[in-house]
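Posting this for the archive.
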Amino acid sequence: MTFRYANVHWLWLSAAIMLADQITKQMVIIGIQRFESVAILPVLNLVHLQNRGAAFSMMSQMPPWFFVLLGVAVAVGILIWLRRHPTGERMVACGLALILGGALGNVIDRVRLGYVTDFIDFHLGGWHFAAFNIADVAITVGAGLLLLDMLLQTLRERAQARSAGRDEEAG
């Protein structure tokens, strides 16, 4: 049995996300006091927050090792999926690479610090979206690409079914 390195060329994107995530988090840790907010745009602040939970600080009572194990399990699953996935389907491969980089970026924080540093704060009026980081953006965009690919695949399958139905009627 030969080992295939299918889609391994997408791992550069995962590495770039992890690097950008860690650099930006370190800049925030060094440059902004905890809970400090720096206005960048009328709808965007940089803040320094420590998220001990998952998205939106859910499950913050769970120990850091839980999220480390979860992130590692997700990363292993994505690596297997990426390896087995056809190399021509770029949208899925890109989405998986983004999710992988984001998941591992947050795992690095959990191992190093016991929490994830969040710093991007979008707001409108008095309403603030949950603070997030580059890893979270990559995970969200990656998931969006996977959903978009599934939607496009469904539309392609429906179009093919309609086309096959017209061919049968004509024949």
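The radius of gyration is 20 Å. DSSP finds four helices and four strands in the chain.
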